[in-house]
Amino acid sequence: SIMGGILTTGCEPPIPWIGGKTILLPVIKRIIPEGQNKFVDVFGGGGSVSLSGKYAPIQIYNDYNQHLTNFYTIIKTRCRDLVNAFAGAFGKDGKLVEEIEQRIFANIRDQFNACCLVFYRADTFEEFYDSILKMLNKAGSIQDKQHVWMNSMLAWELYKRREKDPELFDALMFLILMKCSFSATGKSWACKCTNAETAIHLINDASRVFQHIAVDNRDCLDIIRLHDSPTTIFYCDPPYYMAEKCYSGVPLFGDMMHKALHDALLKCKAKVIISYNECDFIDELYSEDKWFIMRLDRPHSMLLHSNPGAVYHEVIIANFDIFEMYYGNGQLTLMDMSDTINEEGRIIL
């Protein structure tokens, strides 16, 4: 589809991710300014914003998490290899196979646990061996020990394959852990099957979109310093305040980093858009006159099962007039938008 002269044919992310921006996309897409030379997704995460369209001639996806940036590099450059490794991920004999022979990726707990073992506790052979010994020692009955041993064999196959092609198998294990874990934490098995055909469609679509996107793996302050210019757009989706510990594999993003990010963005020559959870800390941090702050309510995905009406409050902060962008220079009347705005002027998603 064409949006204001920019081609915006995008796709869904191939992996779920904590704090993904899919729900906010209808707003974000409307407030990204046209005519800029470079679009930088500073905290790329699961990729929902980068994958949602082409916003500038030069587009950059960045994240500090090396597993994420490796995953998208493999999707961009070795899509077919990843699909082949994933689609037949574990054959009928429990071994990894290259051929596509399973239509459904059977998410069995043992296979998930084998992935966990290699992904999190097998940087070296010694570490891998120690982890298996510890599990065997913990196992009480002979049946438990046999079970651990079977798991270890699955993990050993993965370990050997990873040694031959570390980047591809890091991407494969990351894909399996994200797809099959509870709430995309990558840690606990979610007791659900993943449809391989759907997953393959998403991987192929993402590969097509990523052909025009550069992938970088830098600290947020470094990437901002590197690309700041009047013709750049920075989209920043940092870990939400007080939710930073949800993100494993990267250093904790604490108060000092939230302040350092604010200070860097305050000085930017670029156009800046930032997403945050609504809270006093962020309101006080971004209290300067230059910021435009849009407040949104969306369904609270983490509480939907226990409390169906639960709402999550978010803010979008920018250093340019995003309201003018969102309302289309007055072309939309309040009648057109009455269903999306409540009496406090908050946008309801």
What's the overall geometry? elongated
Topology as a string of helices (H) and strands (E): EEHEEHHEHHHHEHEHEHEHEEHHE
**Largest β sheet strand count, sense and barrel closure:** 8 strands, mixed
**Biggest sheet, strands in spatial order?**
7-4-3-8-9-11-10-12
* Radius of gyration (Å): 22 Å
What is the average per-residue confidence, as pLDDT, rounded to a whole number? Answer: 84
Helices and strands: which structural class? Answer: alpha/beta
Provide the low-confidence segments as ranges: 1-8, 99-107
Query: Distance between termini?
Result: 22 Å
Give the amount of beta strand, in percent: 5-15%
Describe the protein's architecture and organization.
The chain is of the alpha/beta class and 349 residues long. 41% of the residues lie in helices and 15% in strands. It has 13 helices and twelve strands. The longest helix has 23 residues, at 142-164. 33% of the residues are buried.
Summarize, please.
Helix content is 41%, strand content 15%. It has helices spanning 25-31, 66-77, 79-87, 109-121, 125-138, 142-164, 166-180, 196-210, 220-227, 255-266, 280-285, 322-327, 334-337; strands spanning 2-3, 6-7, 38-41, 58-62, 104-105, 194-195, 213-216, 232-236, 271-277, 292-299, 311-318, 347-348.
